[in-house]
């Protein structure tokens, strides 16, 4: 198994070093190679995603990605490497699970949901321009039948496999804003409802995105699989991850045909970089997701069991109320793996 590791910027290298340590314990045969991308890379070589990195990502069996720091102003020539990787590798399905299994009070509601986000188009196609001497900014949003139908199918297939694994009341919530974005989300909605008809065993519900944000915050236990377009999914998955213990624990998969990239949901966290206190558990969960995707289910379960034990008994990083370092949490996970 060849794993291409792209640490990126900020805490990306800190948390991926932890993830790779764990990977080496549970999959000693894995061939790990490292590749550069991100803001520091852009400043050094003038591109954020060098062609060698793209080539290495293509050739690997799976990619582990840390985080990149993207400037919030327009920098000529800079394009977000993660957005580019998703497009170049056609990783069309962004799968972001949230579960509160690790922090639920015994009588509390069970949260076990997945946000399935379209990953290749929508608002993130990068077609923005200024008009009117710079006083008007226009962004184009692209919705296609092809991308909508494959992401909605991915969501229904996921709901089916979760049902097969014992999840009750399998439901797909189609999230859109077709009442305002009548043409673009109108197409997404039409296609989604057509596909829903192929899955009579799965309950279908529709929700406007603003209501979905409120319900995800208030009643996450009512969701199973929610599917939506790129920008909405980006935002909703961050809302959902609150219930799973926050950004320090949230992991995601970017899946295409026979390809996959795993990354923590969090970013480069410039406020804590270099302090050695970044929570490595989101990146370590990425390793579990990667192993599962490669059908190494036992190894994935070992990683999850070790991470759960550490979450339960500590040590914990400051984002979870503790005072432990990244290294201490990682070592605790490795110690549990050895038991
Ligand atoms: P962020 O996720 O980097 O940080 C948000 C807050 O969560 C910060 O207070 C940070 O310290 C905390 N946090 C994040 N991950 C943590 C971890 N593992 N352990 C403990 N605390 C953690 O989001 P922000 O601040 O909006 O963005 C910072 C930079 O990251 C920006 O340049 C942004 O473009 C980039 N970013 C990159 C992403 C990616 O590479 N996929 C995703 C989101 C943001
Ligand atoms: Mg995000």
TrEMBL record:
NAD found in the keyword field: yes
GO biological process terms, semicolon-separated: carboxylic acid biosynthetic process; isocitrate metabolic process; tricarboxylic acid cycle
Domain Isopropylmalate dehydrogenase-like: 2-333
Single GO MF descriptor: isocitrate dehydrogenase (NAD+) activity
Keywords, sorted A to Z: Magnesium, Metal-binding, NAD, Oxidoreductase
Pathway entry: Amino-acid biosynthesis; L-lysine biosynthesis via AAA pathway; L-alpha-aminoadipate from 2-oxoglutarate: step 4/5
Cofactor(s) in the UniProt record: Mg(2+)
EC number: 1.1.1.286
Catalysis: reaction(s): (2R,3S)-homoisocitrate + NAD(+) = 2-oxoadipate + CO2 + NADH; D-threo-isocitrate + NAD(+) = 2-oxoglutarate + CO2 + NADH
InterPro entries named in the record: IsoCit/isopropylmalate_DH_CS, IsoPropMal-DH-like_dom
Protein function: Catalyzes the NAD(+)-dependent oxidative decarboxylation of homoisocitrate to 2-oxoadipate (alpha-ketoadipate), a reaction involved in lysine biosynthesis through the alpha-aminoadipate pathway. In addition, has high activity with isocitrate, but is inactive with 3-isopropylmalate.
Subunit and partners: Homotetramer. Dimer of dimers. The homotetramer can transiently dissociate into homodimers.
Family label: Belongs to the isocitrate and isopropylmalate dehydrogenases family.
Protein name: Isocitrate/homoisocitrate dehydrogenase
